[in-house]
Write a structure and sequence with these properties.
241 residues; alpha/beta; two-stranded antiparallel ribbon; 7 strands; 15% helix; 16% strand; binds arginine; binds zinc ion; binds calcium ion
Length: 241
């Protein structure tokens, strides 16, 4: 057992206009959400139905803001091909990706809120990307994705979690035992219970696609899957001092 794991966070703000150059306060609001959600101290835990309440995990990962890098750019959207992760493209290079979580905040475009790299990939592109209007809870944010849960979801991927529905009908898996099988993503704010694959969906899990206000938990099984990557020999063991 590794105890509390602390992750320093480098935030790269790549902006094309004043709105996208989000405030330090907006950045802090996102770090606060990550700390609440990964430590079972989010204020909306009481919305988890009793069927799943015993499975809510305190993942015990803490996030500290290490530094903010601001880059002005003429580019209006960045897509999902990692262009923003290189100063040679007018973006910003990853800082110490083997010991720090890099988060690039820039307009992705195409209606995409964020995306992440799984553990074990190229360290030059390691980290997560989130659009400025979906980052944090104050400032330039856009409902219903204004509660910081896009970063919670993407950091879940960065810590090896798959989507709750396993990316493919009832027969595909997220490799987590205590998350019920599901058929497809849920959107909006579903009324419990949503039954698929002969069980109720854990639609309020951060790894579903529901609105920010309607996701409140990681499961114990997801906690184990995330923390395993930090063990000696695991793909993120370099984060443990
Ligand atoms: N990668 C997903 C997307 O861009 C993120 C979904 C986050 N969901 C949320 N409620 N914030 O669609
Ligand atoms: Zn996702
Ligand atoms: Ca499962």
């Amino acid at each position: 057992n590794l105890g509390a794991i602390t992750i320093p966070v480098v935030v790269h703000v790549i902006y094309n206009n004043a709105n996208q150059n989000i405030s330090d306060q907006q950045i802090t609001s996102q770090i606060n959400v990550l700390n609440a959600d990964f430590n079972k101290s989010n204020s909306d835990l009481n919305q988890v139905p009793s069927e799943f309440s015993s499975l809510i995990a305190d993942v015990d990962v803490n996030f500290t803001l290490d530094q903010v890098i601001r880059v002005s750019s003429t580019r209006t959207s960045w897509g999902t091909n990692d262009a923003m992760k290189f100063s040679s493209n007018g973006g910003s290079d990853a800082v110490s990706p083997n010991t720090k979580l890099n988060i690039w905040v820039c307009n992705i475009g195409g209606g995409i809120l964020g995306y992440a790299q799984f553990p074990g990939g190229n360290s030059a592109t390691d980290g997560v990307v989130v659009g400025p209007q979906f980052f944090g809870t104050t400032g330039f944010v856009s409902a219903p994705f204004d509660k910081g849960r896009t970063a919670t979801h993407e950091v879940g991927h960065w810590l090896n979690l798959r989507h709750i529905w396993g990316d493919g009908r009832c027969n595909r898996d997220d490799f987590v035992n205590d998350t019920p099988k599901s058929d497809a993503p849920n959107y909006g704010c579903p009324n419990y219970p949503v039954n698929n694959c002969r069980s109720n969906d854990m639609s309020m899990n951060y790894m579903d696609y529901v609105d920010d206000a309607c996701m409140q938990m990681f499961s114990e099984g997801q906690k184990t899957r995330m923390r395993t990557i930090f063990l000696a020999g695991g793909p993120r063991d370099s984060f443990i001092p």
